[in-house]
Specification:
This is ATP-binding cassette domain-containing protein. Keywords: ATP-binding, Nucleotide-binding. GO terms for molecular function: ATP binding; ATP hydrolysis activity. It comes from Leuconostoc lactis. About 20% of the residues lie in helices and about 10% in strands. With about 60 residues, it is of the alpha+beta class. It has one domain. It has a two-stranded antiparallel ribbon. The longest helix is centred in the middle third of the chain and has 9 residues. The protein is globular, with a radius of gyration of 12 Å.
Length: about 60
């Protein structure tokens, strides 16, 4: 998946399609996964770098 810089994205889909898992990986809550996350062609780790660019909002209060 590729995203355009300075854009905001909303991830929607049916129950069980992986939305929460993707959000948890991007937010750094899940670190054991296949593949990599890169920003501007630089691989980033699930650490403080990700917290600067990803926000996670849970739908449950």
């Amino acid at each position: 998946m590729s995203l355009i810089k300075n854009k905001k994205y909303l991830i929607i889909g049916p129950s069980g399609s992986g939305k929460s898992t993707l959000a948890n990986v991007l937010a750094g809550f899940i670190t054991n996964f296949d593949g990599e996350i890169s920003v501007d062609d630089q691989v980033v780790n699930a650490n403080d770098q990700m917290f600067d660019i990803v926000a996670y909002v849970n739908q449950s209060p």
